[in-house]
Amino acid sequence: MSRIADIVLPEGYRPSESDPYMSPMQRAFFLKILSEWKGQLIEDAARTLSMMTEEKAVFADPTDRATLETDRNFELRTRDRERKLISKIDRTIEAIEADEYGFCDECGVEIGLRRLEARPVTDLCVGCKTKAEQMEKVQRAPEDDTVL
Q1: How far apart are CA 21 and CA 110, in angstroms?
Q2: For residues 121 and 85, what is the distance between their CA atoms, to the nearest angstrom?
Q3: pLDDT grade, residue 57 (50/70/90)?
């Protein structure tokens, strides 16, 4: 069997609901999207690193220095979130290659092509994701401290 990464997609290919779910062509489509996304994230991180190592500005005004530090901290937080996203992309690529992609990790149903196109790293169907978000909301909700 050929590797998913070796499949050449026709120009403008988009998965169709009429094709068998998670056919090799569909998996190759999502692999391409994820690989390009990962490449862009790595490129952005390299650009940030380059800018931060080149920037050696001396500021007479402490406000300007504080603004630069705030901007840098924001940029680093963004890159940290993207680092975590890259890990999730890598796990998703492994799932594609293992032919385990496109099915809910909780209940096993098809996640759906349109949902995967919107968020290719998703691993839960809409129902399980909704349930997980509700549970998270309940766990984060503050205790009711009112006294009757």
Answers
A1: 8
A2: 9
A3: low
d(CA 35, CA 23): 18
What is the value of pTM for the model shown?
0.79
Report the sign of the C-alpha dihedral through residues 20, 24, 26, 30, in that order: positive
> Which band of pLDDT confidence, cut at 50, 70 and 90, is reported for residue 1?
very low
C-alpha distances (whole Å) from 35 to each of 27, 89, 120, 140 are 12, 8, 11, 34
Rounded CA-CA distance 9/26 in Å is 9
Residue type for position 46 = A
Partnered with residue 110 across adjacent β-strands are 103
3-state DSSP call for residue 50? helix
What is the rounded CA–CA span in Å between residue 15 and residue 113? 7
- The CATH architecture assigned to 4-102 reads Up-down Bundle (1.20)
